[in-house]
């Protein structure tokens, strides 16, 4: 049979077994005289399925299920012996050989659960242990009061019988501790969630069935028959966890984000509240029903101390989290400042010519678009193109380093000569561009001559015979007639005219739209 078929068979067996068993109880069917055989049948099927699980598992992951297999087999042996004695010589007294197998089954199941939890790396046993211990300790107080104390106070029972009977609730308390560890650790589990949850269900069913059975025996409630279906389904549930553990260890399919957040929030609240609920339950029970000098009162005091210790641990943990959060916030702010500085640097590098530190051609074109007329009323715009005369000769004569210094000096002079609202950029090579928003034709021409004079008067440039040619243009235009290409073309024609006219001069050409 395939793994899916085995799993479906076992699920249907558990459902039909419990439903059918309770149906027989309601009908008071005569077959219930052999109820122990029905219980054993479920455990035998669990042994077969666990053997299948062990065989299919990898050697690194089969150990807990091998221990479970041995534990369930011992349980089958114990149940078989109990059934044999019950049908021949009567129900065996405590202690008996059956108790050896039952207690060995409990011990091995605890060991198997611990091994399984240690194999799941996402579950931090140490971190989860305190809350789990506090919850188990509070629950153990209830078990101690309801089960252990009546057993200890029964003077008609022999000492060996008392010891054996006490071993059962002790095993249940340890199983309860395992359940709480699994419950508090489930929030960190990503893989094998189904196997983990079914195994937790097995732990819970085991201790509930055993505790209700002990309470039934002690207080003679007469509900033992209704517990029999539980005994028959506990071991198949353990085997079902093994089948789910065979599934590939991949991340489980996530629910919709909002549902996941809601479910996680609810579970977190339960995990936080559970130790307090259990602790105050036992405290209330003790204060209402018991003298403050007996053992339950000491248990309640111990619980109160543990709860106070938990509060101290929570406060210290919150302080550490707060400090870590503040540290992360400072680090994040620092990173944000560095990133903002880096972004500003990237923005600057993308807009500014690295040599002359004026705008580059791409930024100048963007500014042309931004400076476009906003209304239908005509607006003036001046434009200058500046070319360093015979720049190749400068590079060839003095070297490229001097040529770079010449370009930087010309850029400085352009920026110093023009107004604050004027915009300067490197148009390419040895050519610069200047935008003069709102400038009419005389203003543009005056700016060009002023710049020409500044270059002629600069000692560093004059010493090397550096001059410039300037082409100026002006366009009085409205929004509908604005064309960058037209203004650039006109200015370029003016520059070309200056070069053709002998260089070291200013030429102006206006166009109107």
Question: What are the key terms here?
Answer:
513 residues, alpha+beta, Alpha-Beta Plaits, five-stranded mixed sheet, 16 helices
What can you see in these coordinates?
The chain is of the alpha+beta class and 513 residues long. Among the domains are: 1-122 and 222-248, no CATH class; 361-512, Alpha-Beta Plaits (2-Layer Sandwich), CATH 3.30.70.270. The protein is 71% helix and 8% strand. The protein has 16 helices and five strands. Strand 4, helix 16 and strand 5 form a beta-alpha-beta unit. Helix 2 (35-56) packs antiparallel against helix 3 (63-88) and helix 5 (125-153) runs antiparallel to helix 6.
Summarize the structure.
The chain is α+β, with helices and mostly antiparallel strands. About 70% of the residues lie in helices and about 10% in strands.
Strand element count? 5
Strand order of the largest sheet: 2-3-1-4-5
Strand content: 5-15%
Please identify the top-level CATH class of the domain at 361-512: Alpha Beta
N to C succession of SSEs: HHHHHHHHHHHEHHEEHHEHE
The name of the CATH superfamily of the domain at 361-512 reads: Reverse transcriptase/Diguanylate cyclase domain
CATH architecture grouping of the domain at 361-512: 2-Layer Sandwich
Uncertain regions: pLDDT < 50 for 5+ in a row? Answer: 251-263
Fraction of helical residues: over 70%
Termini separation comes to 89 Å
CA radius of gyration = 45 Å
What is the molecular shape?
rod-shaped
